[in-house]
Amino acid sequence: MAGAPTAGPKPHFLGHRDRLKARLRDAGADSLADYELLELLLFQVIPRRDTKPIAKALLERFGSFSEVLAAPDKLLLEVDDVGPAVVHHLKLMRAAAQRFARDPVRQRPVLDSWAAVVDYCRAVMAYEQVEQFRVLFLDRKNGLIADEVQATGTVDHTPVYPREVVKRALELSATAIILVHNHPSGDPTPSRADIEMTKTIAEVAAPLGVRLHDHLVIGKDGHASFRGLDLI
Q1: What is the number of other CB atoms lying within 10 angstroms of the CB of residue 180?
Q2: What is d(CA 87, CA 173) in angstroms, rounded to the nearest whole number?
Q3: How far apart are CA 75 and CA 63, in angstroms?
Q4: 187-201, pLDDT tens digit by residue?
Q5: Which of 74, 76, 87, 214 has the fewest CB atoms nearer than 10 Å to its CB?
Q6: 214, 134 in Cβ contact below 8 A?
Q7: Which of 100, 98, 96, 87 is nearest to 126 (CA)?
Q8: Residue 147 burial (CB < 10 Å; 0-12/13-18/19+)?
Q9: Are 109 and 128 in contact (CB under 8 A)?
Q10: Dihedral angle of Cα 106, 120, 133, 171, to the nearest 10 degrees
C-alpha cells in the first residue's frame, strides 16, 4: 500500500512573514520599513502570495505609505495584483487611522490639544485629491460640538459662503469656530483668496458672538496657521 503523499516545501515567503511579525512584536513598528509594514497589511487579504512585490509597487506608484492609503480606488486597481479586497482593506486601515487621530480631539478642549487637532486634520485632509473646506464648531469651553465638511471643490478651489458658515455655527449654538481646508498641491501657503475669505467670515461672525480661533491650511508638505502667521 502506497504511503500518504508528503507535503511539499513551504513557500519561501511564509518564513519571511513570520520574521516580520516577530520583529513587529518584539521591536515595534519603527523597526519596519514602509514596504514591510504594507506587506503586513496585505498579508491579511492575500494569504497565499508573496506580498513584497505588491507593497513595493504600491509605494513606487503613489510615493509614500500615507499616499497609498489615501489613493483613489480606481488608481489602486491599476496596480498589478491589487483587487477589490485589497482596496477595501486599505480603506479600512485609513478609516481606522483617522478615527484614532480624531478621538483625542473629542476628549478634551480643542485649544488644550492643538497638536492633536493638527494631527487629526492632516490625517483626514492632507492627501485628498480635491479641496475640502471643514469647520470645527466649539462650545464656550472650547469643546468640540461638531466637525463638518462644508464644501468640496476642485484641485485648487472650493466655494465657501461665509454667511452659511456662521448660520451653521448659530444652529449648533457654537461660540467659536476653526476653519480648515487642504491644498492638494501639497504647499500649505495661504492664497490671497484664502486670506480674503477668512477675513470675511471673521467679520460676519464677530457681531453674532462667534469667534474665529484660527484657519488651518493642510498640505502634504505641512500646515499653515493663520493665527501663527498673524493673518487674523
Answers
A1: 26
A2: 39
A3: 13
A4: 899 999 999 999 999
A5: 74
A6: no
A7: 98
A8: middle
A9: no
A10: 0
Q: State the Cα–Cα distance between residues 127 and 141, nearest whole angstrom.
A: 31
Nearest CA among 128, 119, 173, 118 for reference residue 149: 128
Rounded Cα distance between 218 and 188, Å, is 6
The whole-model pTM stands at 0.74
Cβ atoms 175, 203 nearer than 8 A: no
- Delineate the domains of the chain, giving CATH numbers in brackets: 12-97 (1.10.150), 110-225 (3.40.140.10)
Question: How does pLDDT run across 73-100, given as a tens digit for each residue?
Answer: 999 999 999 999 999 999 999 999 888 8
User: Using the 8-state DSSP alphabet, how is residue 23 labeled?
Assistant: H
Cα-only R_g, the chain: 23
- List strands edge to edge, sheet with 144-152: 144-152, 132-138, 176-182, 211-219, 222-225
- CB-based contacts of 57, cutoff 8 Å, min separation 6: 79, 80, 81
Interval 51-76 mean pLDDT: 91
